[in-house]
Amino acid sequence: MDILRIALQVVLVLTSGFLILLILLHKGKGGGLSDMFGGGVSSSVGSSGVAERNLNRITVGFALVWFVVVVLLGLITKVDTGI
Fold it and tell me: Which of 5, 30, 49, 53 is the most buried (most CB within 10 A)?
């Protein structure tokens, strides 16, 4: 169980980092921090609809993997502690 726990923790750290990067790559929708720092001007010129859709799909995929890993780590902890 220790090898599985370590492997899941490594996957959790990696997916967390990728999720942060992927979320930061998304185009601002207006009215937020991206507009405050001038992101509103560059976001209309930025990515196309296809690129944004693919970024959304990749982000959702990483989020699902992250969620499954969190649940599995919780189950392993529950089994190990005997709760």
Answer: 5
Give the integer Cα–Cα distance in Å for 40 and 31.
Answer: 9
Give CA–CA dist 62/58, Å, rounded: 6
75, amino acid identity: L
pLDDT at 27 (0 to 100) = 78
- Measure the CA–CA gap between 34 and 13, rounded to whole angstroms: 26
- The C-alpha atoms of residue 82 and residue 11 are separated, in whole angstroms, by 24
pLDDT tens for each residue of 55-69: 999 999 999 999 999
Side-chain half-sphere exposure of 50, counting CA atoms within 13 A: 0
C-alpha 61/C-alpha 56 separation (Å) is: 9
pTM over 0.85? The answer is no
Q: How high does pLDDT run on average in the chain?
A: 84
